[in-house]
Every structure is written in structure tokens, then in C-alpha cells.
């Protein structure tokens, strides 16, 4: 018999589809709600129940919540740069979408919620390793919507006693390898955004005619390029499952999810050159709007309270992204 049913919103996207697959692998029943606006039909695990629709459509949300005990909420717009030029879309999809979900969860008496949040809620911080207790000061509308969601959910927990956890991701990378039991072929769930804006896939795709652009060479960092904290998607989802197991009614917890180590854009390019054993064509370019200079997590809370540690390093993330892009015919 399968374990309880989990609704994965955004389960056709990179991180949501990885969550759905890992939950199914562990014996949970899964329903996926996705409007396929940025996700892919081919990412939808055939073992899951699939409802096509957006959180903003009451009917789809209703249908998706049937028999569900816990919601893993990934459905959102998530590009920092895009949020600078289209803030309205971010407030509508992310905040209004979550509001609708919370209303529907209450109607269906679904009391457990695991939310995908972001380091973008913090903005630029003076401390080198960001703690959950640090004040949120987002530098872009994307981060502002994610912070608003945390505040909204906190109110819901206090007023209605639901159990919720918000997981603030630093930079997610890598790919999840699925084995198809019928064909015995391996298949990857990877990030295949169109256009791709994220650093690691863009480094791997860089060519002489389209070199990787290093956005800014005058940031206040040792080599002048931005510093980020990268986490493998598989480690990320493991922590969601642990967070779900630790949910308590009437409690809202926030956890940072990263590796606790920062790498500059130039260091990531270097790591990719070592893994791929070739030089990556690169050029220096203007700073990108909305980027903070440094984002590094303090992950001690997740380590201590969730008994979780990241197991994969930057080289693993580059290697898995490379294998997945190769398998998808993208390089
Ligand atoms: N970068 C480049 N060249 C590129 C792409 C990125 O130099 O072609 C730089 C960016 O300027 C940034 C770093 O590489 O300094 C990482 O950029 P990404 O676009 O890969 O990721 P972001 O840090 O902008 O954002 C990601 C997620 C957000 C999340 C954030 C948390 O997209 O949802 O990590 O740290 F909030």
C-alpha cells in the first residue's frame, strides 16, 4: 500500500518534477498540478495523478487536492531578472496563487504545507553566511513575493493551526537520474529553461561563438564576480522529505538550503573546466539587474533540526547537468 498522498504543485518543472519522482520512488502517492506554462509534459511522472491547470483556477485546485494530506508547493515564477521587468506577473502568480492554494487547502482540511522559497528573500546582507533570523530585504520583486508568501503562511499557521515549513533555496543545480523500469534506459530531470538564464547550464552550453557572459567584474568580491551557494537538486528534495516528517500543527519553520560554501562565477567556470576537461569560452559583460553580490547560506539549522547534510559537491552538479543536457540533445 502506498504512503499518504502528496500534491506537488509545479510538478512538471525542474525542481517539482524531481520532488514528484523522489516521493514516488519512496512509496508516496503523488498528484501533480501544473499549468505547463514553464514546465514540460515529458517531466510528468506517469506514476502520478496529473491535473493540468493553474493555482488561480479554483476548479483545477479543487480537483488536485482530492485525497491529499500534504502539499509541496513549487508552482511559481522564479527568475530574478524577469521579475524586474514583469513584477505584476510575479505578484499575481506567486502571491495570489499561494493565497488561492491556502484557501482551497482550508476548504479541503489539508493541514500540511512544504513551501519552496528562496534566498532571494534576504537580498544583500552584511553577514557572510545568511541565517534564517536575518531580516529579509529583497533586491528584486521575485524575492519580495517569496517573502510576502512566508508572511502570509505565518498568519495562516497562527490563525488556523496548520503545519508549514518554508525552505529557502540558494542556487539549485544538477539533475536527477531516473531509471525507466520498462526500457531500462536512464532519463534525467534537468533544468531546460527556454531561454536558459542559469549559470551552470549556460557554462556547459557555451561555445566560441556564444561564450558564457560573466555578469559584472567589479562586484565587491575577491575576483570581482558574484558569489553564490550551489546545492544539488537531489540533496534539496531529500531535505523537503525530512522537513515534511518534522511538520507540527500550529508551527511554521524556515530553513536555509544550500551547501554553506560560496563560489564566484569565475570559480564555477573553473570547476566546469576541470570536470569537462576543456576550456570554457567566456567574456566579461555588464552587471545583470537585480543581482546581489554575495549569497551564502548558514545551513546549521537544517543540519541540526532536520538531521540533513548535503552530500553532493559543485563538480557533481556540473557532471550531472552535463549528462542531462547531453541526454536531452541540448549540447
Ligand atoms: N551569471 C552569469 N552569467 C550567466 C548566468 C548567470 O554571470 O549567463 C551569474 C549571475 O549574475 C549570478 C550567478 O551567475 O551572479 C548565478 O546566476 P543564476 O541566474 O544561475 O541564479 P541567480 O543567483 O540569479 O538565482 C537563482 C534562482 C533564484 C534564487 C537564487 C537564490 O534563479 O530563484 O538563485 O540564490 F532566488
Give an account of the 3D structure.
This protein is α/β, with parallel strands linked by helices and 331 residues long. The protein contains 10 helices and 15 strands. The protein has helices at 14-25, 58-65, 80-85, 87-107, 141-160, 199-205, 233-245, 265-276, 300-306, 314-327; strands at residues 5-9, 29-34, 49-52, 68-73, 112-118, 163-169, 171-173, 176-179, 186-189, 212-215, 227-228, 230-232, 252-257, 263-264, 282-285. Helix 5 links the parallel strand 5 and strand 6 (163-169). The longest helix has 21 residues, at 87-107. It is globular and about 55 Å long. The termini are far apart. The mean pLDDT is 95. The structure holds uridine-5'-diphosphate-4-deoxy-4-fluoro-alpha-D-galactose. Residues 78-80, 118-120, 170-171, 197-199, 202, 212-215, 226, 228, 265, 288, 291, 295 line the site of uridine-5'-diphosphate-4-deoxy-4-fluoro-alpha-D-galactose (UFG).
| Main sheet attributes: strand count, strand direction, barrel closure | 7 strands, parallel
Could you name the ranges where pLDDT drops below 50 across 5 or more consecutive residues? Answer: none
Largest sheet strand order: 3-2-1-4-5-6-13
Approximately what portion of the residues adopt beta-strand conformation? 15-25%
Query: How many distinct helices?
Result: 10
H/E element sequence = EHEEHEHHEHEEEEHEEEHEEHEHH
Q: Structural class, from helix and strand content?
A: alpha/beta
Share of helix among residues? Answer: 25-40%
> Which word captures the global form?
globular
Small ligands present: uridine-5'-diphosphate-4-deoxy-4-fluoro-alpha-D-galactose
Q: Can you count the beta strands?
A: 15
Q: What is the radius of gyration? A: 19 Å
Distance between the termini: 41 Å
